[in-house]
Design goal:
Elements (H helix, E strand, L loop, with lengths): L2 H14 L3 E2 L23 H4 L9 E9 L16 E10 L4 H13 L14 E6 L3 H11 L6 E4 L1 H4 E3 L4 E12 L17 E15 L8 E16 H8 L12 H11 L7 H22 L8 H19 L7 H12 L5 H4 L1 H35 L4 E2 L1 H11 L3 H10 L3 E2 L1 H23 L21 H8 L4
Parallel strand pairs: 1-2, 4-5, 10-11
Antiparallel strand pairs: 2-3, 3-9, 4-7, 6-7, 7-8, 8-9
Helix pairs in contact: 3-4, 7-8, 7-10, 8-9, 8-10, 8-12, 9-12, 10-12, 13-15
The structure holds adenosine-5'-triphosphate (ATP) and magnesium ion (MG) (3 copies).
The site of one magnesium ion has 2 residues, from loops.
Subcellular location: Cytoplasm
Protein name: Alanine--tRNA ligase
GO molecular function: alanine-tRNA ligase activity; aminoacyl-tRNA deacylase activity; ATP binding; tRNA binding; zinc ion binding
């Protein structure tokens, strides 16, 4: 079943059940505490927290999402993309657990001939929050699941909140058993190859406060109006229904892998390391396309840095696959063609999108050329002297003078069996920041404010903001 069809069936199902179909919001988060929309619920936060009255009692959407926190997983697990689409249904004080479970079960188990996804009920497992007896008994009643396939989990896995005072509640996740060839029978449902989490149902039922961590907070009492927030990973469902092995092999992504494989002459499926690189390319090219489409441009900070990192990682993965010529003019149009049925604006806006992407590749090529020479020399010296780690000073110089992001240095070092003296690198970085601050203070007296011109500046060194992004990213869900 094509991804477009999975999408259509989802929206139809919830439309027929009284939900208003709401178009995807842009990837840029409306909530300043996170960079990107990381879940389908993000655009609905004001309604879910009760800050604003929801315009409809029920809504459904297919929301574009970016999770930079999952970047290291890409290509290595079967199920994590930096860009993905979360299909959701939402109830704002309307139906609650029974409705959410009924709608989800109906859609996933109804036959394909009858408009559903047609998953075999015998292969469906669920988790519930450990003392959510209500959800457990609904699963028994509605889905007739045996006890063994209703697994109980604690606060860490099955309780949702925003890490701030406000709504919270248990959740229930739906898994598909892919079969014994992917792992041992029975046992706990674990987030590995065999059991694939496809859908998370969040039951927002209480107000919490004194939030110290995921597992430490105080429940104030029941919410006056209880909400439902669900998220189904469209790519995960697509890979199961398309009979492929992972989310990078679906119709919206695989054409890029195929083309990258042809360009490099590396056959997909022949070598694990090459395969991971090809999947990284498939994922990152699509994410970059979607980000630029939504107005992000490469830069050294925040969202722009995420985009820069995705573009540069794609180019570098292609180089590691042996392709030294310009990669993006080959791959970006292929990704556009795979995505334009769902997002026609990518086609009409492609000139602008591609200009931005290709310019970034050009900048990076220059950076790489010089930086790689410096790196190779330093790595050889480090190894010769028997040291396990590249000096912090080298990483700093690569960063400061040659625009090498630290994660690139880390990656290249690890390919050589080396680590990097990161504490020293960070110390030098903060020293430099202090110098820059002092400079700025000195300049403030007597100079005109140049901040309006900042965007016109040449791309300079790239501060590593990855960790901040990872942290802020895990804030919601
Ligand atoms: P996982 O445990 O596999 O990392 P999650 O529990 O972090 O998933 P949720 O936050 O519950 O995911 O998001 C709801 C749904 O969105 C998941 O059930 C999954 O189907 C999908 N999803 C989450 N992260 C990704 C991703 N990086 N790529 C593709 N789909 C995803
Ligand atoms: Mg996750
Ligand atoms: Mg999970
Ligand atoms: Mg989940």
């Amino acid at each position: 079943m094509e991804t477009a069809e999975i999408r259509r069936r989802f929206l139809d199902h919830f439309d027929r059940n009284g939900h208003t179909v709401v178009p995807s919001a842009p990837l840029i988060s409306p909530d300043p505490s996170v960079l990107f929309v990381i879940a389908g619920m993000v655009p609905f936060i004001p309604y879910l927290t009760g800050q604003q009255a929801a315009p409809w009692p029920r809504a459904t959407s297919v929301q574009k999402c970016i999770r930079t926190g999952d970047i290291e997983e890409v290509g290595k697990t079967t199920r994590h993309g930096t860009f993905f689409q979360m299909n959701g249904n939402f109830s704002f004080g309307d139906y609650f657990k029974e409705g959410a479970i009924t709608y989800a079960w109906d859609l996933i188990t109804r036959s394909q001939a009858d408009g559903g996804y047609g998953f075999d009920p015998a292969k469906i497992w669920v988790t519930v929050y450990h003392d959510d007896d209500e959800a457990a008994s609904l699963w028994r009643k509605i889905a007739e699941l045996p006890e063994e396939r209703i697994q109980r989990r604690g606060l860490k896995d099955n309780y949702w909140h925003t890490h701030q005072p406000g709504p919270g509640g248990p959740c229930s996740e739906i898994y598909i058993d892919r079969g014994p060839q992917y792992g041992p029978d029975g046992g706990p449902v674990v987030d590995e190859d065999r059991f694939l989490e496809i859908w998370n149902l969040v039951f927002m039922q209480e107000e919490i406060t004194d939030v110290k961590s995921q597992e430490e907070f105080r429940v104030v009492g029941d919410l006056p109006s209880k909400n439902i927030d669900t998220g189904m990973g469209m790519e995960r469902v697509a890979y199961l229904l398309q009979g492929v092995q992972n989310m990078y092999e679906i119709d919206q992504v695989f054409p890029v892998i195929k083309h990258a494989s042809a360009l490099s002459g590396r056959r997909y499926g022949a070598d694990h390391t090459d395969d991971v690189r090809l999947r990284v390319v498939g994922d990152h090219i699509r994410s970059s396309l979607m980000l630029i489409g939504d107005g992000v441009t490469p830069s050294n900070e925040g969202r722009g840095y995420v985009l820069r990192r995705l573009l540069r990682r794609s180019v570098r993965a292609m180089r590691l696959l042996g392709v030294d010529t310009h990669a993006l003019p080959e791959l970006l149009p292929v990704s556009r063609d795979a995505m334009k049925a769902a997002y026609p604006e990518l086609d009409s806006d492609f000139q602008r999108i591609s200009r931005i992407a290709y310019a970034e590749e050009e900048t990076f090529r220059k950076t790489l050329q010089t930086g790689t020479q410096i790196f190779d020399l330093a790595a050889a010296e480090t190894k010769q002297s028997g040291q396990p780690a590249l000096a912090g000073q080298t990483a700093f110089k690569l960063h400061d003078t040659y625009g090498f992001p630290i994660d690139l240095t880390l990656e290249m070092a690890s390919e050589q069996g080396l680590s990097v003296d990161e504490p020293e690198f960070r110390r030098l970085m903060s020293e430099q920041r202090e110098r820059a601050k002092a400079d700025a203070r000195a300049k403030k007296t007597g100079h005109a404010d140049m901040s309006a011109y900042r965007e016109l500046r040449e791309p300079g060194p790239t501060p590593f903001t990855g960790y901040q992004e990872l942290e802020s990213d895990s804030r919601v869900r």
